[in-house]
Amino acid sequence: MRTHRQTTGQTDIQVDPSPAARRRRRRRRVLLAVGVCLVLCLGLSAGGAWYLNHKVTSQIERIPDVFTGLTHRPVKPPVGTAKKATNILVIGTDRRSEDKTTGEDATAPTWLPGAQRSDTLMLVHISGDRDNVTVVSIPRDSWVRVPGHGSAKINAGFSFGGPSLAIRTVEELTGVRIDHLAVVDWDGFKAMIDSLGPIEVTIEDTVHDSARDKTWTAGRHRLDGEAALQFVRQRYGLPGGDLDRVRRQQLVLRAILTKALAQDLWADPIGRYRVLDAVTSNLSLDDGWAIGQVRHLLRQISEVERDNFFFTTAPVRGAGRVGQQSVVFLDDVAGARLWRTVNEDRAPEWFAAHPETLLPHTPIR
């Protein structure tokens, strides 16, 4: 039995502490131990979170001065939710493409005029009330006016003048003011799929990719990252040419989105880090887009209902040739109506009136 030694002026007296006193001391020791562990865990968690956040964000490359020098830009409507909407131009490249203009040249450390073309152009509109997201793909072979260079394929804007001219070209075409720029390589989507797990896509018609001697049979397919990359990179054997390729890209993006939302990554820090690490290693953003703003926007997008994500393609009048080039001719009339609803933050109204333009109703080959 442990005793407490009480000292008086004459002698020492052995006093046994009461049961209640012993319980109070044990309780204090337990609470102290728990408190120390909690502080240590919080410190480690905070330090770990800071390290992981720093590691992920430091991987993002920054593109300087993309909006510097741009004049006569579109203006957002000053009323309603439109003034709070966010418009992002997403430029996709493919460093593993056999096409040198969208292959290694497109991601070279130094931009080379005439050598770097975008493989994918998407205007992403996040509504001002953060209730819906619209993704409009612009076919890379679209024949448009490139400021200062006459008529050309829209992806030539990136080639002739880099990100700034690409933004100016899209703004003049659409009348929509671009707030931010993101350049991503398709390797990033491959890595993202591998971190999330295989995605599923449905192909309506059997097609053969002669470049890779691969046949995509009609039906449902489960794709890992490498297979998905082959799926979006196919250029030969597609009946609809560039338009079919655009639809495939959107199909894969929608499948990734569905997978990510189903996993509730905001409630899974480890899973979230794994996915963000895969994406940011293949991502470049304009230097005016603060990481805090990016994080806040991603959190808002994650709370959008799945049925409020709209994927579509800029209205097309047809395809043809200009000289030796195979091009896509956009429908200026229908396009102007679509872009107006996007600019005024009324995109769902367009899709309610034109449901056939939405991805679920678009044949995927």
UniProtKB/TrEMBL annotation:
InterPro entries: LytR/CpsA/Psr_CW_biosynth (IPR050922), LytR_CpsA_psr (IPR004474). The chain crosses the membrane at residues 30-52. The keyword Membrane applies. Residues 1-13 have a biased composition (Polar residues). The keyword Hydrolase does not apply. Residues 1-24 are annotated as: Disordered. It comes from the Bacteria. It holds the Pfam family LytR_cpsA_psr. Residues 117-260 form the Cell envelope-related transcriptional attenuator domain. Keywords: Membrane, Transmembrane, Transmembrane helix. Belongs to the LytR/CpsA/Psr (LCP) family. NCBIfam families: lytR_cpsA_psr (TIGR00350). This is LCP family protein required for cell wall assembly.
